[in-house]
Amino acid sequence: MEINIGTLDTIQFHFAQCNNAKCKSLFFVNPEEIPGELGFLCPSCSAKTTTCHTVQCSSCGTVLNFIRALTTEEKVVFTIDKCSHCYGTVEDEWEIEPLYQADSYI
Ligand SMILES: [Zn+2]
Ligand SMILES: [Zn+2]
């Protein structure tokens, strides 16, 4: 019986596009990997989710922005109703940032 030695040809990697609207880079994903609530994020963006707050569109699920967080802060996902791709405006996307910063000084 022949033994097939696994090569990159036998492992089917898939391309995915980063779910961060400002990144959109293509990267390899393991087809068995199931996207989380934030969808597929490239390695550099998914690293940011551990150090930054994430802003996500609740309509299409696209990740829109990362907000710098203190290392001691719990990292949270902010959602907005509509991003600019969902007939919202770019202003909607940025509105959340000053609001959040005002809160953080309390
Ligand atoms: Zn990315
Ligand atoms: Zn959207």
pLDDT < 50 stretches: 98-106
**Global outline:** globular
Q: Please tell me how large the radius of gyration is.
A: 18 Å
Strand order of the largest sheet: 4-3-5
User: What ligands can be seen in this structure?
Assistant: zinc ion
Distance between the termini: 70 Å
Largest β sheet strand count, sense and barrel closure: 3 strands, mixed
Query: What is the element string, with H for helices and E for strands?
Result: EEHEEEH
The level of helicity is 10-25%
Q: How many domains would you count in the coordinates?
A: 1
Helix run count = 2
The number of strands is 5
Helix-and-strand structural type: alpha+beta
Mean pLDDT: 81
The percent range for strand residues is 15-25%
Describe the model.
The protein is α+β, with helices and mostly antiparallel strands and 106 residues long. The chain has one domain (12-98). The protein contains two helices and five strands; from the N terminus they run ββαβββα. The chain has helices at 43-48, 90-104; strands spanning 14-17, 26-29, 52-57, 63-68, 77-80. It is globular. The termini are far apart. The structure holds zinc ion (2 copies). One zinc ion binds next to helix 1.
